[in-house]
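Indoleamine 2,3-dioxygenase 1: C-alpha cells wanted.
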Amino acid sequence: METNYRETLQADFDAFDISEELGFILEEPLTHLPDYYQVWLDLANNLTHLIESRKLRDLVHKMPVLSPHLLSNHRELRLAHLALGFISMGYVWQEGQHEPAQILPKALAWPYWLISRRLGLPPILTYADSVLANWKLKDPTGDMEIGNMDLIYSFPGGESCKGFFLVSLLVEMAASSGLKVSVFLSVFLFSYMNL
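Answer:
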C-alpha cells in the first residue's frame, strides 16, 4: 500500500515537474536549443549590451518568425520561454519607463504565446522563468552554492541583478527541504492510517 501511495505521489511530482530534491526549481536547466533557435539564444545571451546600446528592438524587428515545433521536451520549452521572456521584457523597456513598447512584434509574440500555451504559463517573464529555470553551475561537478552559480540570462544591473535572482533561488532551495518533510509525513501518515 505504501509503495502505491509513493508511486502516486511521484507521478504527481512528475506531472507538475516538481523535484523531491529541489522542489519547484527546474533541475539541470538547458543552456542550448536546436540550431534553428540560435537567433533567440544570441539575443538573450547579449541582452544587457543590446539594451544598453539600444539595439535590441532593431534586431528583434529583423528576427524571423520561428515555429516552436522543434522543441521536443519540457526543458527545451522552459529555456525557450526563458529566452523569449527576457527578450520581451528587454524589448518593452529598452527605452525606459517613458517609452515602453506597447506591442510585441509577431516574430517575438507568436512563438512566445505558443510556447506559453504548451507550458501552461502566461506569455510574460515569470518567477518560474527568471528564478526557477534561470540558473547554471559554473563548475558542473561542484555544489549548488552561490559561489558556483550563475544566471543563464540577465538584465542590465550587473551583480545586483544577478544577486537578486540567485538569492531568490537560494530561498527556494532552502524551502525544498520542507517539501521533503511533507513527502515523508504524507507517506508516514498514509501508512499509519492504513494499518
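The helical segments are 2-15, 38-45, 47-52, 56-62, 74-93, 106-119, 127-130, 158-193. The mean pLDDT is 90.

Cheers.
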